[in-house]
Write a structure and sequence with these properties.
The protein is mainly beta. 0% of the residues lie in helices and 48% in strands. It is built from no helices and 11 strands.
């Protein structure tokens, strides 16, 4: 089970850091992880992913250069640092994990999902 945190309201141009940790008794070890988001009235879309070792990352074009995905396996947590936020980044952000060593943007390759955390960017 995955638990997201760190969402909230921020002005355009601001920053937020989302966290995703494995619930007690679970572990992110050896799991590739990623972030997706779903804006109101839209389908869920891929944001970023990172391999189980942390050595490989992959980003959607819409966030490249603004968002950074990382992980701290010792803390059983992964992060999404979001900068230069735009109103169009407003969405519920979901973390997901896969038993594969590395995954990208295909939702079907993810095995576990969090409940989501809301990010609202005001103009």
């Amino acid at each position: 089970q995955l638990v997201e945190s760190g969402g909230g309201l921020v002005q355009a141009g601001g920053s937020l850091r989302l966290s995703c940790r494995a619930a007690s008794g679970s572990s992110l070890d050896y799991l590739a992880v990623g972030w997706f988001r779903q804006a109101p009235g839209k389908e869920r879309e891929f944001v970023a992913s990172i391999s189980w070792s942390g050595g490989n990352t992959y980003y959607a074009d819409s966030v490249k250069g603004r968002f950074t995905i990382s992980r701290d396996n010792a803390k059983n947590t992964m992060y999404l640092q979001m900068t230069i936020l735009k109103p169009e980044d407003t969405a519920v952000y979901y973390c997901a994990a896969s038993t594969a060593k590395m995954v990208r943007d295909d939702e079907i390759t993810y095995d576990y999902w969090g409940q989501g955390t809301l990010v609202t960017v005001s103009s």
